[in-house]
Amino acid sequence: EAPNSKEMMGVFHEELDIYDEDRLTLLTHLREALDQEQLVLYYQPKLNVNSNQVVGMEALVRWIHPTRGLIPPDEFIPLAEESGLINQLTLWAIDRAIVDMNSIKQAAYSGTVSINVSARDISKMSFVEDVKKILNRHSVAAESIYLELTETAAMEDPKVSIASLTALAEMGVNISVDDFGTGYSSLSYLQRLPAKEVKLDRSLIGEIRSSDSAAIIVKASINMAQALGYAIVAEGVEDEETREYLKEYNCDTYQGFLTCRPLPLDDIRKWLNKNYS
Ligand code: C2E
Ligand code: CA
Ligand code: CA
Ligand code: CA
């Protein structure tokens, strides 16, 4: 039998064993969480910069752990990605988001929803069929969902990823490029993706007020992306002054704590009723 990693590392790395065990336990619990409805989607509205009309919602997953309480996605999505559990998680999220948004659809909100997907989702062509099945099951138009992914995710396995994204886009699904302005994101690579929308990362947006160069980068990114035909979303807008800059730059839409934090479905329903009826 091949030595396992514990044996290879020897007795001097006991703390790594604990770490490994912890991750394994976490993964087991995450699997159970997905089966037992401990994962919930919170929603954050996407708004028109000028009118504050709701043009969509982004679904953001949280784990309501029975003993540890609310666990943010950054603490378990990477584990779901490494283990492959992400495929099941993403399909669950798409399904749930459609059901949830249908239940709060009203005059002020059309039911359009954005779901975050990972490299591992789009690197399988079967994902396209899986998404189609969900849309059919709920008789929902492909145009009413946005799938958000980073450029890095699309680059991990570009051949298959671009093929599956193209198939999704041809179906009518909106492709959205997340976290633009971080990492290796570039407008020239962007052109290879069948994207409708580009989301400017909140690290850039948060600096508009304090940094002239950040403001220039945001303004130029908006102009270039719009000239290339993409819709623009500014993420992480936390104050009115930043929204004013975005108006000036002709940015289309925004999300941020300024107007609404991500909230559970019931609270989003209340928020819509309070502000838009
Ligand atoms: P993201 O897709 O870039 O989501 C935006 C994050 O910014 C969310 O964090 C949101 O709560 C936060 N945010 C929104 N407005 C503001 C603001 O005004 N100020 C600040 N400081 N933050 C703001 P969250 O919900 O913790 O999600 C973190 C990341 O986890 C997401 O980043 C996304 O990459 C990932 N994630 C969340 N849900 C899912 C999911 O269902 N599937 C996958 N694959 N990833 C997900
Ligand atoms: Ca996102
Ligand atoms: Ca983002
Ligand atoms: Ca992110």
UniProtKB/TrEMBL annotation:
<protein>
    <recommendedName>
        <fullName>cyclic-guanylate-specific phosphodiesterase</fullName>
    </recommendedName>
</protein>
<feature type="domain" description="EAL">
    <location>
        <begin position="23"/>
        <end position="276"/>
    </location>
</feature>
